[in-house]
Amino acid sequence: MTRSILSLLVALASATLVQAHMEMASPPPRRSQRNPFVKEADRDYNLNFPLEPHTEFKFPCRGSPAGPSVSTLTPGTSYPVQLFGSAIHNGGHCQFSISYDGGKTFVALHTILNRCMLDGLSFQVPLPATLPGGPAVFAWTWINATGNRELYMNCADVTVNGPAKGTLKGPKIVVANIPG
């Protein structure tokens, strides 16, 4: 009996570790417990889960509604991003991007191929000097190197300092392994 209980506890602990994927901690994402504007009832404690087809979370931004700005970006500087979690799945491909149309289109600001999170969970994302000012959506996306090759995405509502002139051009983010 004691052995069965011990086996069950080990299995439950292992399952918890498997589900503890990665999420963006800073800037605090929409519906995050770290976001000071999110009420307790609206918090999503599964921000470290992948997008569909393995879950109900939709692209873009997990289907989460926009909220108040949680951070300010300054064009021509580097923007600090912190990830959180323990299951880096041997790295993979991640991108940091921005959207000015509520998340319909994203322009990649920084791409890391194959080695995302293998050298740590802190990043300095270079912001182009031509980044238009105004409200925007900052996003982190990740396709893991091992496992089910899932797509993860967290979004934070931000404000970009500067004049709202022009449009930002650059590569679109990679969206893979979801329906559509």
Radius of gyration: 17 Å
Distance between the termini: 49 Å
Query: How many distinct folded domains?
Result: 1
Strand content is 25-35%
Instruction: Summarize the helix and strand pattern as letters.
Output: HEEEEEEEE
Tell me the CATH architecture: Distorted Sandwich
SS element count, helices = 1
How would you describe the overall organization of this protein?
The protein is mostly beta strands. It has one helix at residues 2-19; strands spanning 22-26, 71-73, 78-85, 92-99, 107-112, 122-126, 134-144, 151-160. It has one domain (21-160): Coagulation Factor XIII, Chain A, domain 1, CATH 2.70.50. The longest helix has 18 residues, at 2-19. The model is unreliable at 5-19 (pLDDT under 50).
Quick structural gist:
The protein is built from one helix and eight strands, in the order αββββββββ. It has 180 residues and is mainly beta. It has one domain: Coagulation Factor XIII, Chain A, domain 1 (Distorted Sandwich).
Q: Notable features of this structure?
A:
five-stranded mixed β-sheet, 1 helix, mainly beta, Chitin-binding type-4 domain-containing protein, three-stranded antiparallel β-sheet, single chain, signal, globular, 180 residues
Q: What is the topological layout?
A:
Blueprint lengths: L1 H18 L2 E5 L44 E3 L4 E8 L6 E8 L7 E6 L9 E5 L7 E11 L6 E10 L20
